[in-house]
Structure formats: C-alpha cells, structure tokens
C-alpha cells in the first residue's frame, strides 16, 4: 500500500485520476489494460504504475484485484467530471447501436494519418452536444476530417442538418457516402488534402465545424484554420475541436493551445475527457472537446497560418513532424532533361533547379487555373501527398506533365485520367502526355469537363451537352445532368472523391444517351440537385 499512497501523494490535486483507476479495479470486474485506460481517461503509464503496486488475479490479458485497497480516501466515490450530455444518452440506445455497426464496418485506421477510432457513444454524444448547445434546424455542419463518422451520427440524430465531409482518405469518403445514400442522409463528401487547401465548395459554407485532427501543434493549427475558413457566419459560427494530451505532458498541451491562441480564437468551453477512443492509450484513450468562437482578429490570423504552414503535421509516417527536420517536405528530384525543360515548375523544387522557370505552389495549382496554357509542366510531390496526383494532373491543360514523387507509385490513376492522358511511370517519375481530342459525343463532353476541372461540375457538364446538341437549352441540359448525377451540385472535379471521379465517364455517357433518346425538345426539367452524394 505504501507504493500506492506514494503515487497518489505525488499526483497532488490531480489525485482523482489514480483514485478513479483504483475505484474501477475495486468493483470486482475483469479488465483489460486498454479498457481500464479508456474507462478512467488516465494515461497508460500512470495505470501501469498503479498496477505494479497491487495484487492482481490474471486470466489471459484480463485482470482484477485479488482484494480491494483500503485506507485510501476517495477510492469508492465517483470521481469523473460531469458529462454535459450523459443524461441524454440512454434515450438514444438505438443510435449508439447503429453507430457501433457503422464504425465496425469502417475501413481500418491509417497510422500515417494518425487515425484512432472514437467509440460509438462518443460520436453520438458529440451529436447530442451540438443539438443541445446550438439550433440545428437548417444549419450546416462541416466535418474537417471524419474518420470517426460524426457526420453520420449527427445526420441520424438531426436530419435537418446539412453536412459536408472533407477528408484525404478515399476509403472513408466512400464509406460515408455509401451509407448516407443508403440511409437517405444529407451528407456530402469532398476529397481534400488540407495542407493544400479546403475544397472550393466548402469555403464559407458552414455554420458549425467539427474536427478531430492530428494531435501535433502543426496539425491542430492547420485543421482548425481550415475549419474556420469553412464558416459562413463570422459572428455566430463555432468550431468544435477534439484534442487530448497525457496528464504527464502539460508542455505539449501548452504548445497546442498556443497554436489556437495564435488564431485569436475564444475558448467558450472545454469539456474534459469528453471523447473516448479505441487506442491512444498514451493520452488515456481520451480527449477534451473544445468549443471555439472566432473573433474579428481570427480571419487575418488564419490567412497567415495557412500561408506559412508546413506539410509535416502528423506524429507518424513520411509527413510526421519528426521526419521533417531530417528530410524536409520537398521532393529532392533530379532536374528534367534539357530537351524537356518545363514552362512551369509546380511544388517545392530545389532553388538551383531551372532557376529562371516560373514556379507555383501545389496549393495555388489546385485552387485556381494557371494563367496561360503551358505546353510542359513539371510537378514535385512531397512524400505523403501522393493522393493528390490525379488532381494535380487534372488541374492543367498542359500537353506534357512530368510528376516526380518521393518513391515509385503503387499504381497509375485510372478513369477518367486515362481518357485524358497517356500515362507511364519510370521509377518515381510519372509522365502524362495529353491525348488527341476525342471524336465521340460522350468523349467530347467528358473532355470539356476535365479541361475545366476548376469550374463547377454541373456548369461545365451542362456546357458540354449544349455543345453537342443543337437546340438544347441550359434548363434542359441542367435537367439531364441532375438526372445522371444528382451529386454534381456545387462540386468541382478536383474535389470529387475517387469513387465519384471513376464513375464520371459512365454518368456522362448516361446523360448523352438521355439527350439522344429523349430529344432536345422534350427533355424534362426534373431532377433533385439537392440529393446528397
């Protein structure tokens, strides 16, 4: 008992954490280490230190106390802080069960993206808190990354909310959009590497934004800045942020909170240990929930933040904060051959490579069309940003594009890129040579769409149909687009998730056939442009 008393004494006023661990052990249940960490929101190191001081009965990876501790004040009392919506949770058992199933079916998390799955009751409590704290009828919610599926929980709880999810993980976008469509939920999905920008259709779009980003100061600062960029209401908009740190590392928490302070945000509330996870035991499998409100000084601070951001924002993988110091985020690529000198260099090229050639950033390349129509372009893609390759190729009308990756690609992009370029790879270099203009109607419509990838898909598609059908009005062409692709809406080709992008040729073909079969004069003006993707 002396060891336990010493640990509790050293905890001082934070002694409720070790007492919560002992109280959980004292109830006679069998525990795993992961369950005990998550139940008590106490770091694994602290829990392990306590377990070394007590007598345990073990069965496989489970354990329990052989006898309860005695003589330590507070062990038998409830020690967890009050949960603002715990009293509402029993009334939503069906929703929790549904989310457990959806989370179980979700793609496995990727360590390189710092994925750790939240529990089902966590995402339901997030939805309950938003519903209790804000007026959600007619509101818009932006999920800045959504591996936890908070979007689906919120839409199921409150169908009156319109939701957009932006994420870099194509698997997550496909999972969310598939279940949203099956359940009839107003949830749209957009691809984005937030280091390169927020999708155009998500800018100034939302009333609320929620994010559970990489737990580095760089990741917190970037994801929060993008969430702020997504707010349309600069006075009443809010950002909800999940962030957790071990009770042993207050300096790290300070660095993160300092990054929030630099964005001039007001912390209206911080709910301790609100979020619980399967994993992240170093931080007690728990994270606080922040409710942040922008000020008039937030917007210039956000602009400065995103202009000076680093690509290294994660704790693991090629874009971890640690790896940036050793290798940097720029691709150290060989210069193009003298006979293939590009007119534009895109990305972070070494300064001594073709110093007189025009340069532009990857983010700028994706955010707006490049002035002029270059014949050759060379693009450098840092490690960890390979997912942007299809969009980087779509963002130009160049005849030849040379893309240098950090390592050889696992595969080349498929449709619709294969209708636009002849693609080949040699080591880490991908070469794309633009194909001749297509001769079929559907090919011409698709080419018009892909040639204008920065434009709104519904508009460029409509224009393409009008070009191949004399007498087709804008209203009629719009109806054909809506019937073939209700998900087109306000999205650009560059924002489309891979699944939607791959299905674009078939959808274009369907719209062209519909125009042929129906006839321009009888095209219906029906269609549901508001159907979620």
What's the shape?
A: elongated
The main β sheet shows up as: 8 strands, mixed
Strand content: 15-25%
CATH class of the largest domain: Alpha Beta
CATH architecture designation of the largest domain: 3-Layer(aba) Sandwich
Helix-residue proportion: 25-40%
The structural class is: alpha/beta
Distance between the termini: 59 Å
Q: Report strand order across the widest sheet.
A: 3-9-10-8-7-4-5-6
Would you give the CATH topology of the largest domain? Answer: Rossmann fold
Helix segment count? 18
CATH superfamily of the largest domain: Vaccinia Virus protein VP39
Q: How many beta-strand segments?
A: 16
Output the radius of gyration: 26 Å
Number of structurally distinct domains? 4
User: Taking all residues together, what is the mean pLDDT?
Assistant: 87
Low-confidence stretches: 319-333, 520-532
InterPro entries: BpsA_C (IPR002723), rRNA_MeTrfase/Polyamine_Synth (IPR051720), SAM-dependent_MTases_sf (IPR029063)
Domain N(4)-bis(aminopropyl)spermidine synthase C-terminal: 94-299
Keywords: Methyltransferase, Transferase
GO molecular function: methyltransferase activity
Give structural attributes.
533 residues; Rossmann fold; 4 domains; 8-stranded mixed beta sheet; 6-stranded mixed beta sheet; 18 helices; methyltransferase; BpsA_C; SAM-dependent_MTases_sf
Descriptive account of the structure:
By secondary structure, this protein is an alpha/beta fold. It has 4 domains: 2-65, Orthogonal Bundle (Arc Repressor Mutant, subunit A), CATH 1.10.10; 86-307, Rossmann fold (3-Layer(aba) Sandwich), CATH 3.40.50.150; 338-434, no CATH class; 441-522, no CATH class. The protein is built from 18 helices and 16 strands. Strands 3-9-10-8-7-4-5-6 form an 8-stranded mixed sheet, sandwiched between helices. A 6-stranded mixed sheet has the order 12-11-13-14-16-15. The chain has a two-stranded antiparallel sheet with strand order 1-2. Helix 14 links the parallel strand 13 (376-380) and strand 14. Helix 9 runs parallel beside helix 10 (250-261). The protein is elongated and about 85 Å long. The chain starts with a helix and ends in a 15-residue tail after the last helix. 44% of the residues are buried. Pfam families: BpsA_C. This is Methyltransferase. One of its GO terms (molecular function) is methyltransferase activity. Residues 94-299 form the N(4)-bis(aminopropyl)spermidine synthase C-terminal domain. InterPro entries: BpsA_C, rRNA_MeTrfase/Polyamine_Synth, SAM-dependent_MTases_sf.
